[in-house]
# Entry
Amino acid sequence: FIKPLAVKSNGQLVIVSNRGACTFRETSQGVKGIPSVSGLVSALEPVVAREGGVWVAWGGRFGNEGDETGISCPLPEGDPKYVFQEVMLAPREVDLYYNGFANSCLWPLCHNFIEKSVFEEQYWQAYCQVNEKYARVILRTTKPQDFIWIHDYHLAKVPSYIRRFRTRARISLFWHIPFPPAEIFAVMPWAKEYISDMLDAELVGFHTQNYAQNFLQAAEEIAGAKVDYVSGTIYRERKRTKVVALPIGINWREFESLAGSAEVMQRAAQIRRSVGGDYMLVGVDRLDYTKGILERLQALAWLFKNCPQYRGKVTFVQIAVPSRTDTYAYQELRRKIEETVGRINGAFTENYHVPVRYLFKSLSKEELVAHYLAADMALVTPVKDGLNLVAKEYVVTNANNTGVLLLSPFAGAAQQLKEALQANPFSPRETAEQIIAGLEMPDAEKKRRLKALNNVVRNQDIDWWWEQLRLNWLGDVLQSRYVSPSDKVPE
Ligand code: F6P
# Structure
């Protein structure tokens, strides 16, 4: 067993992602940074703020086709801990690489929506170009001994572009969304090259064991690599890639402290009063077809239709955070959600009590926590989700109350949060029945479940996640990327 290296003793940490800690806007006073809305960003910020280093990401601004390296800015403002290194992308690149390949091909493919996946050669070409551009910015702004930690499906070819120039670079890749079964991934025309390029990372991480298994199988069946399923190791051209399942955690102290603040508690009480009725349910999601918002609304309609005793008593508050608004599938979904909300309210409003409150906007952390606190129950019922951090945030926020979490078995978090109620989002009846089970649950059971859920979320938090990852990456794999003649490689 080799002791993990402290990242800084040898090189610095370099986080690489599509979206970074902030999005830049041009104003009359100059460029202004606005915090980004993303689970990935809120999870990685505390890690890089503690370790220091560089965060390489697109800053949301548009450059010309040839522009590569944008501004470097120390963050957080006023108390800098790391440097944000902006990558410049042209409008056409964002359209084809981000809206196109990442969000219209990979995203649906990995979330079981094959029929929505668009396989366009020009999307793929742009994806390759942008990944290569990222690699050039990384090579320019980092040193050979640095630890390059790449995130998500937007940038899976970056390891391979970096290795062309730095064969011994230390590279790890974390995949934040589901990884589908090999036979589904194989449908993508560029699957073989894609998986092979991911194998240029020495460590590849996923949120669940299922996703990791699917990836091992894809490496064997699609990329023709040798795989040791027991140790989670992939062998290719005398080099190995380790695969780990590590569910990302949250910075629960931040949520605990917000939940205890007098202003947030007052705001929660105010929300509760404005909503009225006996029970408040909450859903918080980016407006995305993977999140099961429409299916959830159908479950509510089922409940109000078949159990009229809850009319006038239950209010469902859906906070839908605007997301990928340039993509047709998201515009279409928004239209359908808004229509459905209107239909439910038209049919089931009783004594002017409105059953569904719908907000299409993003909330500050304080507002978010106030909504979690006000709600008797959180409905986290995606049709497919890599992990889902809202589930974890809700249980920490309500640790001292009596909240109930209803979770879809198709959210990665369901592998960890066993004490949550579960419902299949594709069944309006089952979801409605579980909502009723949650509303009618005795307080003692609510508290028992919340306690068990809190144990998991607090023990396997963001510090645990980074520590485990670091152990796997720097404590073990680094020394053994190259297979020696005495190593046993599966036949
Ligand atoms: O976690 C998956 C993810 O795609 C992240 O990579 C991303 O930052 C987040 O969801 C939000 O999506 P987007 O960056 O496309 O708005």
User: Anything to note?
Assistant: The two ends are 26 Å apart (CA to CA). The pocket of 6-O-phosphono-beta-D-fructofuranose is lined by residues 19, 38-40, 152, 176-177, 286, 323-324, 386 (CB under 6 Å). Confidence is low (pLDDT under 50) at residues 1-5. The first strand starts at residue 13 and ends at 19.
